[in-house]
Specification:
It is built from twelve helices and eleven strands. By secondary structure, the protein is α+β, with helices and mostly antiparallel strands. The longest helix is centred in the N-terminal third of the chain and has 25 residues.
Length: 334
């Protein structure tokens, strides 16, 4: 076949696709195009409204590849957001035969932290399977469960090493929930809570603990790194497809329904992990939510948002997260 004939044949084959392109382009209404163009202005405005707190946001449309960011290269305290990479580390070890889902782990009364395990605990120790601990840690944000999982894998540095092995450099895990709590309580290694402490003395200690926590670089992530973690999870680059689905299902089942979930359109699911610190003297060290919004047609959009140092009431913070979800949905899937 001559080059001229080959070119004519190729043009004939491509003609239907080429003629369809104007129809595809026109499928996006002017209002939808404008919404995508204005999303950056909207998240910029949210960040300004969060002042004097910091609000870092990274949005990634997994279909188009479009991104929107504000304050996204700054590292923020993760709080319970870190339970998702801990779970991914555990699942990776299970895939490599180092642990099993049905393996049992002992939790003692001294190990207890916030969450349903503490509320239902009986006796001085109980055993739980890894499967139970994963569900409690991710879906119910149970601190006792994640502490047990961190011990199981060999400590926080193992989680950070796992992240580095997969090219995620802006996220680090240095402590379990018990270690984070000791920072907030301004307790050093081996320290116990002061005896006969007055309310004033306790408040002063909490102020010092808040300052220590805010200055500490540990257990932090940039929104960009959190978005990269979710992107790799979605594309089965962290785990096998079966393990990725397992973790995403635990995130879909998260029981905390505020923040991004408050602004989801009907039919849209969210696989997310939130993270929250106590408020100290009206200031919140961390109020976070990272997740993947998934439409019934399979369109998926990542939103990684971290708020730190906010003096806004919780309902106002929740409203800002809901507004963020609505703006993202309108811009990416009108």
């Amino acid at each position: 076949m001559t080059r001229k004939k080959a070119g004519l044949l190729l043009a004939t084959l491509l003609l239907p696709a080429l003629t369809a392109l104007p129809m595809i382009a026109s499928a996006a209404s002017p209002s939808a195009t404008q919404a995508r163009a204005t999303l950056q202005a909207q998240i910029d405005a949210l960040a300004k409204r969060a002042l004097p707190g910091a609000f870092g946001i990274a949005v990634l449309d997994l279909q188009s590849g479009d991104t929107w960011q504000v304050n996204a290269d700054k590292a923020y305290p993760m709080m319970s957001v870190f339970k998702a990479p801990v779970a991914a580390t555990v699942l990776s070890r299970i895939e490599h035969g180092q642990n099993t889902m049905d393996q049992t782990v002992t939790v003692t009364r001294a190990d207890l932290g916030y969450g349903p395990i503490r509320d239902q605990f009986k006796g001085e120790q109980m055993t739980f399977t890894v499967r139970q601990l994963l569900a409690a840690a991710v879906s119910k944000s149970d601190n006792s469960a994640v502490n047990a999982l961190v011990r199981l894998v060999g400590g926080p540095t193992i989680v950070t090493a796992y992240l580095r092995e997969h090219g995620i450099t802006g996220m680090r895990v240095d402590r379990d929930e018990a270690g984070i709590g000791r920072l907030f309580e301004d307790l050093g290694p081996g320290d116990s809570l002061p005896a006969n402490e007055t309310e004033t003395e306790q408040n002063e200690r909490y102020k010092r603990g808040y300052a220590r926590f805010m200055a500490d670089p540990g257990n932090r992530s940039t929104p960009v790194a959190a978005a990269a973690f979710l992107q790799k999870l979605w594309h089965n680059e962290l785990l096998s497809p079966a393990s990725s689905k397992y973790l995403l299902d635990l995130m879909y089942a998260q029981t905390l329904t505020h923040r991004l979930r408050g602004g989801l359109p009907p039919g849209v699911k969210l696989a997310d992990k939130s993270g929250t610190s106590d408020d100290i003297n009206g200031l919140s060290a961390a109020y976070n939510d990272i997740g993947i919004m998934v439409w019934p047609d399979g369109h998926a959009v990542i939103v990684a948002a971290f708020m730190s140092g906010s003096n806004a009431p919780p309902k106002q913070r929740d409203a800002m997260y809901a507004e963020l979800a609505r703006d993202v949905a309108k811009a990416t899937h009108p």
